[in-house]
Specification:
The protein is an alpha+beta fold. Helix content is 15%, strand content 37%.
Length: 73
């Protein structure tokens, strides 16, 4: 596979809505052509120990970050 997009979400706690960062990489012809990374203020806004151990993020990192928009259908 030479062309694809990879997306990685990290969460602050066990709630699926607690996204605290997102990274995206676009690959074309086997080469990275674009990337994006952003911190996000998690909802609910707390970090559990195990999630922080995985990605190294804590409240101090995301206190001023934007809130991820929720879309309810």
């Amino acid at each position: 596979m030479k062309d694809f997009a990879a997306i990685d979400f990290e969460t602050a706690n066990n709630e699926r809505s607690s996204v605290c960062s997102v990274g995206i990489v676009i690959v074309r012809n086997g080469e990275i052509v674009d990337s994006f990374y952003s911190l996000i203020q998690p909802e609910p806004n707390y970090y559990n120990y195990w999630c922080s151990q995985v990605h190294g993020l804590c409240c101090d990192d995301t206190d001023d970050a934007p809130v991820f928009p929720k879309v309810w259908k």
